[in-house]
Amino acid sequence: VWLNGEYHGNGHGSHDEKSPWSLSGPCSVTFSVLSLAMPFHGWLSFFITLYYKDVDITKRLDYSSAIAVLGFSLIVSILRTFDVRVEAARVMVSAPVLALVTTHVLYINFYKLYYDWNMIVCVAMGVAQLFLWARWADVSRHPSNWKLWVVVIALGLAMLLEIYDFPPYGGYLDAHSIWHLATVPLTILWWRFIRDDAEFRTSSLLRKSKTKAK
């Protein structure tokens, strides 16, 4: 956080010391609320909004919800990319990820609330699923592939805002607040891709069932 021209640590206020409030806080809160209006990661954004009150419990909720969302989305990306349809195989894929998420949540809640380690785990899981979705988009012939490509590339660039901090521009916009702002249009595009994907898969299944009926 930047205050009175001096740097006081990461904008998350994630270290043991309580971070001073700055004008960049309200911007992050505002953009977080905008993101909350979108279904994608809305509840995570809600926790992040609370987090700026710098209460210990909201930090834990922020970290825990982030890793839970990333864990679920990582499982989905693996199952979709490798077209895992056998139920036993799905369990074998999901179990290690769920174990990792559970262990991490227990660690940060009951052992040490460690921001840097949490960021490493979250970034690793985020980068992994971005690569998986990029591979799927590259080999598939989905009619809305371009939407997925935009989301993957834009999220990869936006992720840098979570890693590298900079002083608030004009005293208002810091890296974390811009991250929340970036998630608003990307959320819309992501859900449009999901809608197109549902329609595409449904039409494909209907064509197959009609072909078998003949």
Automatic annotation (TrEMBL):
It is found in: Golgi apparatus membrane. The keyword Transmembrane applies. This is Post-GPI attachment to proteins factor 3. The chain crosses the membrane at residues 28-51, 63-79, 117-134, 146-164, 176-194. Residues 1-21 are annotated as: Disordered. Its main location: Golgi. GO terms for cellular component: Golgi membrane.
